[in-house]
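new request in #modeling-help
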Amino acid sequence: MGSYLRPTSLPEALAALAATPRIVLAGGTDYYPARVGRPPEDDLLDITAIPALAGIAETEEGWRIGAATTWTEVVEAPLPPLFDGLKAAAREVGGAQIQNAGTVAGNLCNASPAADGIPNLLALGATVHLASASGDRVLPVAEFVHGNRRTARRADEIVTAIHIPGPKRAARSVFLKLGARRYLVISIVMVAAVAEFDEDGTIASARIAVGSCSAAAVRLPALEAALAGQRPDPALVAEAHLAPLSPIDDVRASAAYRRDAALTLLRRAVEALR
Amino acid sequence: MPRVSLTVNGKPVSAEVEDRTLLVELLRETLRLTGTHVGCDTSQCGACVVHVNGDSIKSCTLLARQAEGAEVVTIEGLAAADGTLHPMQEAFREYHALQCGFCTPGMVMSAIDLVKKNPQGLSEQEIREGLEGNLCRCTGYHNIVKAIDAAQQVMHGKVKELPRAAAE
């Protein structure tokens, strides 16, 4: 039987992790269901009582989403259109009760290939802030998520926040998700897109990420390059842009179906950026 | 064993729990508040929904110790001391929004949170979407939606008395 700690300060939490590796727990929405019927053996560190990890704040560089921020808090926060995609994801992560408990950072650390948050964080150019008793570090999301359930987080580290840089120009974002049903199911394909626009309505820069089509969500640099300098036009999306994807066959969909659906969702996402 | 202290249905409660005890186990087995049900154990069905600090959550997905200091409301905490039902409970009765009743406590708790968070009023479609986290396997959704629509009118003070269901 493992032990449970619920520290009320970050130094206390970091000291505990420095002493013993523990499962870091916030909403727990994916933790418990994976362990039904098994005796609990993990040592747990519950981070939901640490004020320094709470809430969303505007910073000089952009925004900070504290590690204990729930999906509901994202939906309710007064955020600019840059966050429309993340908000759309927040509204579709399970039902309302899951959104009330589950956190954005937990979704990231859990690192499921089908995590709804990760494509959005990639498209937002987010960075992951980690703390440990021996020091802090910052990693881009693409360097933090290594693969299926694998991240760069060391056992003695806690993700304290996700930082999102402010756009230089007018920005819009979109998130599209395909599942067998809209809610409560694991996504078959997800597309997140963030674009910054010049005053004449052309795309100055775009970041496009696809989830559920590789072990970790990835950006599509060739598509991003093809969109730059153009007005949003679905015809700009080509099959060759899907090269970074490596979808698998599983119970939810075949690889071929995923590839086809990704292409369709990408075209819809570009259309939605208009 | 560690001790957890919280407020349940307005009363302070303190109980010894194991670290691994889930909130729903504390409610059902220690406090004997068996109105909160466990359907799936995996956060899908919503039969275990209770309110924690004003938000609906699935109590099979929260450790009892995570609710330290929290205000918890269960289905047993809705009716007034004299037995007067909460408008949502009254509406579920009036509109026959249940068949076997297993999902009902969770449905009622989710519905109250949904209505409270949407003071502008909910359309039928929004009510249906708001119930995504609650499963009814008797196909009772249709009357559940009608009940929530009626209850929201009372809860938002639009009508004094619950609109009666049409005679079948």
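bot summary: The CA atoms of residues 20 and 58 of chain A lie 34 Å apart.
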